[in-house]
Fold this protein.
Amino acid sequence: MSDKQILLEQIRADILNNNICPDLAKTAMNLVMGSGDINADIVFIGEAPGKKEDEQGLPFVGAAGKFLDKMLMQAGLARSDVYITNIVKYRPPNNRDPSPEEKKTFWPYLVRQLNIIQPKIVVTLGRHSMEYFLPDQKISAIHGQPTNVAFDGTDIVVVPLYHPAAALYNGSLRATLIDDFMKLSTIIEILEKEKEQ
Ligand code: URA
C-alpha cells in the first residue's frame, strides 16, 4: 500500500472508531469513503450515498452516477482519472437530505481526504458540498464558474456544479450541467498548460 492509501484507510478507521453519526451508521450497510485515482488533480464531491451506493460501498453508482459517467466521458475524462467522494459518507435513511449536523460532523474527514489527495480542482456537485467551499452563495448564480479558494493553506480551484440527480429529470438543468461540464474540460486544459510551463 502507498503512503496515501494508508493515510486514507486511517480516515475510514477513525470514522468507525469515533462512532461518527451513529444513527446513520446503524441504518447504513456501508461506509462509502470514495473511489478513483488517489493521485488525481480533480476531485468530485457529492452529498451522500444513495441506495445503490450504500449497497455497493461506492459513490455515484446509481442513476445519477451513470449520468455523471456520461458527462465525464463527454468532457474527455474517465472515472479512473478522477477521485469521487461525498461530504456525508453514510446513506441518510430514505435518501433524505443530509442534516447540517451530519455535514458538519463529516467535514473534517473530507478535509483530511483532500489534504492527502491534494487535488488542484474540487468540483462540488450540488449545494450540500458547495456551501462548505463557497459559503453564502447561490448555486444558480455561480454554477460552472471556477473560483480560487485558499483551502487549509493550499490554493485550489473550486468549480460548483448542479447535482446530477437534480439535473437528471429536469431538461433545462440538464442542459446547463452538460454545458458546465464542457467548461470543466477547458479549465483542466488551462491548468495542465500552466503545469507544463
Ligand atoms: N448522490 C450523491 O450525492 N452521492 C452519491 O454517491 C450518489 C448520489
